[in-house]
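Progress note, sequence design subtask.
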């Protein structure tokens, strides 16, 4: 099967592409290349990568494509707030356009990687299901949710639309991100012996390992369309709801000599939510369900950090922070103010 993977050179795409190829899929990548050189160790992208913007792509990219996996976009809340107009264009309008063109050109399935950020502020005493009220509070979250609504309208007997809402991803990737909670705390502990919590530690964050997310995405390729068409799924491990304090405690146990410091810079962070993964566990084959723990991820990442001499410059630099990388590209005229 031939698959078009957008955002193939990002944090998740760098891991997912290899898993897809390992499973025998024929992968074509589509990526603007913002983060192409943001790798912390050598990696080979041994498949065809088309360097185009999802706002302005050649329709021929869909030749013989059966499934589209759509990862590309501005990938978190800070990036989404950089320019709200651009966030709407990239995360919403371009997603709908890409899905529409995929359907027109004969693709049979469109897998959209949405986000649990769409739940926003909620009662953290309750685990939210896919049918619960959506309360997005950032432009990133709003555009992800609107894209879900609009691409589902394209679903039909011949075009299956599946929307995956991953928990916050953690774990090792050659194009590592340290601007996400677990990776940030572990990177800080390793390079500075400091685990800095900018809230009071109480907010809840559902999390999922990057390899477990990749498995779930691959499972979506062949999931029975009568079950999954026009459906959204929370993707995460059944025990994957953690408070920030609990995540910090695991990091503290993993890195000897590290200390936890609550700066409380953000006060009591209002973005707190717990999520139910019951629907995911009911509809997906057992062999594709999550297995990685925080402890497993710590061990793997710390081994690599030691091997490559991962340091404070790496941790605080643009290679592992998506907003810093985009600002560097802008400041050095590598891209214009429209991010082209």
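Output:
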């Amino acid at each position: 099967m031939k698959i078009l993977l957008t955002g193939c050179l990002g944090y998740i795409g760098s891991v997912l592409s290899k898993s897809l190829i390992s499973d025998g899929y024929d992968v074509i990548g589509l990526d603007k290349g913002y983060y192409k050189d943001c790798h912390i160790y050598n990696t080979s992208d041994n498949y065809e990568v088309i360097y185009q913007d999802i706002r302005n792509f050649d329709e021929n990219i869909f030749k013989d494509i059966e499934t589209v996996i759509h990862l590309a976009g501005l990938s978190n809340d800070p990036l989404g707030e950089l320019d709200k107009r651009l966030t709407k264009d990239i995360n919403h309008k371009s997603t709908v356009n890409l899905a529409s063109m995929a359907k027109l050109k004969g693709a049979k399935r469109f897998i959209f990687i949405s986000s649990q950020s769409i739940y926003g502020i909620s009662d953290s005493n309750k685990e939210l299901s896919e049918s619960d009220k959506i309360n997005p509070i950032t432009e990133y979250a709003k555009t992800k949710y609107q894209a879900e609504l609009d691409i589902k309208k394209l679903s039909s007997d011949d075009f299956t639309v599946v929307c995956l809402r991953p928990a916050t991803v953690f774990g090792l990737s050659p194009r590592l991100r340290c601007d996400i909670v677990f990776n940030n705390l572990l990177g800080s502990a390793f390079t500075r012996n400091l685990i800095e919590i900018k809230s009071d530690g109480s907010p809840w964050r559902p999390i999922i390992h990057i390899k477990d997310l990749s498995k779930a995405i691959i499972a979506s390729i062949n999931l029975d369309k009568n079950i999954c068409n026009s459906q959204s799924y929370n993707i995460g491990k059944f025990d994957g709801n953690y408070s920030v304090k609990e995540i910090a405690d695991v990091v503290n146990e993993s890195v000897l000599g590290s200390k936890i410091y609550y700066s409380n810079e953000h006060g009591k962070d209002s973005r707190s939510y717990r999520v139910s993964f019951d629907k995911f566990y009911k509809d997906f084959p057992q062999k594709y369900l999550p297995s990685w723990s925080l402890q497993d991820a710590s061990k793997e990442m710390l081994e690599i950090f030691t091997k490559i001499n991962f340091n404070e410059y790496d941790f605080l630099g643009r290679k592992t922070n998506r907003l810093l990388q985009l600002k560097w590209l802008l400041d050095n005229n590598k891209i214009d103010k429209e991010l082209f």
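Residues 100 and 154 are 7 Å apart (CA to CA). Work on this subtask will continue into the next period as scheduled.
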